[in-house]
Amino acid sequence: MQEDRTEVRPGAWLWSLPFVYAIHIADEFFVGTGLYTWVGELAPFSAGSFVGVNVAIILLVGVAAFMARLTHGARFLAVAVFTQFALHGLVVHPAFSIWAGEASPGLATGILLLLPLAYLGFRWASSALPPRSIGWGVAAGALLFASQDLWRVMFNVLYPPAA
Question: What is the pLDDT of residue 117?
């Protein structure tokens, strides 16, 4: 049976990617003591490191959205970004919340904003890609997700956590 691979047209939501992520980062940064402090000894990092990592990701997300809109082949990038969003919303905040026994900063926007956008975006980005490209996009998104700790370490060198 042939799978329906009809085109799903992107709407304004595609351009909302960097803004939604920025709202999520603000939630992480300003709720309570901020995620970077709240996480504490599990993953210590400074406010400067937190901002640096997330500004880099916001820029990457914006470029991926722009590229995916311009060229069909760049939808692979969008699949990667939406995979990273889904993993972040499904893994990071629920895991931190379970570990701490309370809701982490960013949990609400991670679930209420990132997950629906990841679903819409993944559906759009993968609608016209062959399965192999979708697989590579998911793998790239998982790598992006996993590499965030490496980014944090790099930015901790530039902006060391307070002792």
Answer: 87
What angle (nearest 5°) sits at the alpha carbon of residue 106, between those of residues 17 and 46?
100
Domain residue limits at 89: 21-157
Q: How many domains does the chain have?
A: 1
> What pLDDT digit, counting tens, does each position of 16-31 carry?
777 888 899 899 888 8
Spatial separation of the C-alpha atoms in residues 8 and 5, rounded to whole Å = 9
Helices (H), the chain: 12-15, 17-30, 35-38, 47-70, 75-87, 93-100, 107-109, 115-126, 131-158
Q: Which two tokens stand for residue 41?
A: 């000894």
Instruction: Report helix, strand or coil for 45.
Output: coil
Decide: 53 and 148 in contact? Cβ < 8 Å.
Answer: yes
**pLDDT at site 6:** 46
- Residue type for 84, please? Q
